[in-house]
Amino acid sequence: MIDSNPAQNLETPKLDKRLPKYLSLDDSKKLLNVTVNDESDENKERDYAIITLFLNCGLRLSELIGINLQDINFDDYKLTVIGKGNKERTIYLNKACINAIKDYIKVRPTEGVKNDSKASNKALFLSKRRERISNRTVQYIVEKELRKAGLDTSKYSTHKLRHTAATLMYQYGEVDIRALQEILGHKSISTTEIYTHVSNEQARDAIERNPLANL
Fold this sequence. Notes:
With about 220 residues, the chain is mostly helical. About 45% of the residues lie in helices and about 5% in strands. The chain has one domain: Intergrase catalytic core (hpI Integrase, Chain A, Orthogonal Bundle), CATH 1.10.443. The chain starts with about 25 loop residues before the first helix and ends in a 7-residue tail after the last helix.
């Protein structure tokens, strides 16, 4: 009805961004250690591979569950996953991931695996019922391993492992923010920017590195 927008120059309220919760490097190592060394757990190879992929690749829960055996390229150390919006992307695997997957495949059930609507016979990760593992089962596995590692299960969860992977890559791997966006499968760079927060130690170190610090 009018030629100009009267609200065009109005400032919108700024929403605070919450920093994601994540495991420290030491806690991440502790979680991996308790998982791989638990000889009483008959599924330790599977559970260790799950935790390893979460912590190294920053996968979403749905992406991990959807992995099929044929999606893994052991020669090129890479994995194809289907992310949000049914978009396919490539995840590059490091040696820890490749070794964990290979160790699990050695003991992965091959007999009696269901050929159902979930294509369980193609799935990488299987449940005790020999069908594609479910969201809830993976969440239970992560919660169980966190508890064994003495970590707070009310504070950390499956999705927090994705946050952990992203934070560790950014803080210790000096990964470029655009590369991190690609790894995580974020549509917008603004989503990835929540991982560019720095720890207190990094902030202190930055001050100490100021060339005027020792004058």
